[in-house]
């Protein structure tokens, strides 16, 4: 006979937090959201910590280098998607590690032989008004000029006019030398009344642009997470097939932590991957594993050497694994059981292996619940996909701006390695959907609101840190009737936009 678990699979919306005594110590701006990312021994500090307990999902539609830069600057970390060639993933990692505040690698470039039509198409696609004109159209080849809106008139110029006929050529450009500081670049911008300063190396190759408008926004990022060389931290997803080739190239590119990405991580392939990484690199390379939803799965991966373990099967907003395969577990129940296993493992071994709640966060308060239930940090896809910094297109759908968001198990992503159960290569059936999510603007603006809410909830709970919340938070199950009581009820709401 199969084993029956006595619990019910529950999710976050079925719980609420009970307020605790709020003292003067737990006012929102004194609350720490610092979280360990990787395993550590009792009385030691983890080698990597997050300043906010958020990581972005290992997905094509969520985590590229731009998301990674934006999130690390705000205290969290991205895992750059692994469902791409090793070379392009390593290149994204390199872009994050090369990032210098205010110095932007140009991602809109053409050659002098392109046409005005190409300029307009690229402007539309990239959203950038400044286009680097380089010898071969690459972002790091010889700079021959730039094109901005001041260089052409759509009403007068024909669309097949060559870029070389209207660009501002190199000899008319003011440039900065590779290696100058942001303050020096800004002095040049101010002295020459420029909007944009190209930074070039000794061979006249384009390295960066510095934009006048960026200066102020790069002043305050107190939460930024960086390595000993002040370079932003970045993670990357790997799989259990090509890790022998992928991991070395990601390390060479400067990755700080990798994570095995799988919808079902309780497998011997994950153990083999962990063993390979640990035997090859010892403790120098940090590696997470998952996903699991119970004690057995956690212990298996922790014992195999995982630096953190991801929890969640089937709860992702774009995920249909539960419908397709009938496997999974309510995210709250999964976190509660795995957190208990982590604490048990810590007691027994003196080693703390952080757990990550992955998928299924819909409301901001779900984040606090996940943390209170024992998650050390949270992975989100849908949440981040809505922002400017995610890699997908922004489209107008039925009068509203939307961003595209698709699952790694959808036909669009074709990330069969994530769903690999051995045997032949390839995606056998879909476990994810292709969707839209409402466009929400800049990551930082949204994050500020979310973090404000989390701090406010923690303040109400009378706690000052995530550990404090996990030790002293009080959680209650809610009945379906009392859920109705939690929203506006028995009134006619005037403006439905405030009803969220
Ligand atoms: P959500 O934040 O609810 O959008 O969930 C994101 C998570 O969903 C990812 O981190 C991953 O674990 C899972 N995912 C990604 N693709 C798919 C799929 O196609 N089924 N699921």
Automatic annotation (TrEMBL):
Pfam family name, one: IMPDH
Residues in CBS domain copies: 167-225
UniProt GO MF annotations: IMP dehydrogenase activity; metal ion binding
Protein name in UniProt: IMP dehydrogenase
GO BP, sorted A to Z: GMP biosynthetic process; GTP biosynthetic process
Family: Belongs to the IMPDH/GMPR family.
Record keywords: CBS domain, GMP biosynthesis, Metal-binding, NAD, Oxidoreductase, Potassium, Purine biosynthesis
CDD domains the record matches: CBS_pair_IMPDH, IMPDH
Binding residue positions for NAD(+): 261-263, 312-314
Binding site for K(+): 314, 316, 319
Gene source species: Paludibacter jiangxiensis
SMART domains referenced in this protein's UniProt entry, alphabetically: IMPDH
Cofactor(s) of this protein: K(+)
Reaction catalysed by this enzyme: IMP + NAD(+) + H2O = XMP + NADH + H(+)
UniProt-annotated catalytic positions: 319 (thioimidate intermediate), 418 (proton acceptor)
